[in-house]
Known about the structure:
This protein is an alpha/beta fold and 311 residues long. The chain folds into two domains: 13-180, 3-Layer(aba) Sandwich (Rossmann fold); 192-309, Histidine kinase-like ATPase, C-terminal domain (Heat Shock Protein 90). Helices cover 36% and strands 20% of the residues. The strands form two sheets. A five-stranded parallel beta sheet has the order 1-5-4-2-3. The radius of gyration is 21 Å and the shape is elongated.
Amino acid sequence: MTAQPAATPGTFDHRMSVSATDEGFVAAVLPFLAEGLAAAEEPPPVAIVAPDKLDLLRDALGADAAHVGLVPHTDWYTGSAANAIARAAGHLAAHAGPGGRLHLLMEPVWNGRAGRSPRESAEWIRYEALANLLFAPTATTAMCVYDTRTAGSVLIEAARRAHPDSGVYADPLRVAAELDAVPLPPTPADAHRLADPAPDAVRSWAAGRGLGAADAELFATAVAEAASLGPVTGALLWGEAPGCVCELLLARRLDDPLAGFVPPPSPEAAPGQGLWFARQVCAYVDVRDAYAGADGRLDAVVGTTVRLQYA
């Protein structure tokens, strides 16, 4: 294989490949893997793609297949988009070369969790966009694979705006803001109100809605981690297991769009990490400005709502 020029050291190089056939996939990714194999001060490249594509790569790489990490994407992407950020950060910390140097070929499971609903797909597009900021300090080179047979045209067009080499790249914070402009489902009128979302109260409520002891404990801890950003002026709880929801009203504005996304020194989830822990534990964590005014009028920002959905 002929190697391509490597990315400029010290910059995160985030690429995108779109294919509609097996032959197109192989033609697009072989030069990328050759680039990684030829890169100085780098460990072997890693391909995280669908199992059938790994078979294609083994055949196409020949003897070089022994020098490429081949990982079924169903083994890598085992949780939410926020979990994927932690997995990538942990892998780079443990296995990358100096400055995070590593070539990663990556394909989320678009015919699985990542594509199971517009809501879920939106979170993965957010992850793709914010990756440009979260991994900017690294010298990692990533190519995201999109197969038109599993990822629909709407999703692919959205993803183009998250990749600098697409020609339609948009500022990651703008992409995230547009996703946040989609209204959340309304709060049920019969939501349970708590003046103080203490862990014991949240745990007891969650257990009463069907969460097992371990899950109720995790949910209560996630709520407590989000509440630590307070002061909290109110909390609402609703839903049934596993989709228990807590919405907190904070009497301050959280103006950091990356809150809870930046990997801590140890990306494993642990209490004391605030929104990072909450995002790792819950399927969805939505942070929105809270406004004064009746009927949703945008009169003035009075704080922040943080909505946590366990599953």
